[in-house]
Specification:
Elements (H helix, E strand, L loop, with lengths): L3 H11 L4 H25 L8 E2 L6 H9 L4 H13 L2 H16 L13 H28 L8 E4 L8 E4 L3 H46 L1
Antiparallel strand pairs: 1-3, 2-3
Helix pairs in contact: 1-2, 1-5, 2-4, 2-7, 4-6, 5-6, 6-7
Length: 218
Amino acid sequence: MSWAFLRDLLSGVNKYSTGIGRIWVAVVFMFRLLVYVAAAENIWKHEHDEFECNIKQPGCENVCFDHFFPVSHIRLWALQLIMVSTPSLLVVFHVAYRETREKHNQKLYKNPGKIDGGLLCTYLISLILKTGLEIVFLVLFYKLYDGFKIPHLVKCDIKPCPSTVDCYISKPTEKRIFLYFLVATSCLCIVLNLGELSYLIFKYSIKCHLKRHVKKQQ
């Protein structure tokens, strides 16, 4: 999979982000995207081939693998990365819209990339969407795999398996470490998004309050 588009998107968002937003971009790019491309993808690369059961009944191994791993961890992680980065397109498109209006000699903005007015609303919506998607994917991981764990051994009694069979997962400890890393970075991104959301709301609430106070004084 080519991640050039996601990289370019994060680079574009970085121009219009607050300080906390830039930290979020750095975490997504360095601790999630690069870790995925450089290491995690290879660990789960042959997970189906390396899943072994102690019986060679035709179809048993495939059915058991599908039961315990309905969606590959690494594919779900990739989908999560794409989905939580996509709301940032709202901000990029809004800034592009402002810049287009400026080119048509409609001098409406001192700085098209400044987070104010309509762009502030768009930015806040993108933060809410990113936070919501992070939480949805964490819940999805937890529900699909019965917690954030990778067992060494699973017992399967699904047909066409003739009885309860033992199935072994390859590199469970290594996979568990990366899964914990995934959960930790996702939680960190949630904290950063909520922190940035609170900061922007507080900042512009104070700004509006000061404006009203100045008008009353005048």
